[in-house]
Amino acid sequence: MKKKFTIAVVDGKGGGIGKTLVERIKKEDLDAEILALGTNSA
After folding, report:
1. Which CA distances in Å does 26 have to 6, 20, 22, 41, 42?
2. Is the residue at 42 inside a domain?
3. Residues 1-42: pLDDT tens digits?
4. Domain carrying residue 16
5. What's the half-sphere exposure (Cβ side, CA atoms, 13 Å) at 30?
């Protein structure tokens, strides 16, 4: 049985790098859970 893994993407600067990484990971159609973490500062 293939084990599903989790990919954590952490983006703390607000430049959109995290969003880009998540989009590219999704395109790869991996059997993985994507956990996107970020900060929003005002």
Report:
1. 12, 10, 6, 26, 29
2. no
3. 677 899 999 988 777 888 899 999 999 988 899 999 887 665
4. 5-36
5. 14
Residue 30 in domain: yes
Q: Specify the DSSP element, H or E, that contains 19.
A: helix 17-27
φ/ψ region of 16 (left if φ > 0, alpha if ψ in -120 to 50, else beta) reads left
pTM for the structure as a whole: 0.70
Residues 4/33, Cβ–Cβ less than 8 Å: yes
> In the structure encoding, which two tokens stand for residue 6, read together?
């989790």
Distance of CA 16 to the CA centre of its chain: 11
Write the DSSP symbol of residue 9: E
Q: Determine, yes or no, domain membership for 15.
A: yes
